[in-house]
Amino acid sequence: MRLLFLGDLVGRTGRQAAIEILPSLVEKHRLDFVIVNGENAAAGFGITEEILQDVLDAGADVVTTGNHVWDQRDTLVYIERQERLLRPVNFPSGAPGRGANLFTARNGAQVLVMNAMGRVFMDSLDDPFTAVDMVLESSPLGRVADAIVIDMHAEATSEKQAMAHFADGRASLVVGTHTHVPTADHQILPGGTAYMSDAGMCGDYDSVLGMEKDEPVSRFLRKIPSGRFTPAKGTATVCGVAVEIDDATGLALDIAPLRIGGQLSQTLPPSWTQG
Ligand SMILES: [Fe+2]
Ligand SMILES: [Fe+2]
Question: Is 68 a catalytic residue?
Answer without folding.
Answer: yes
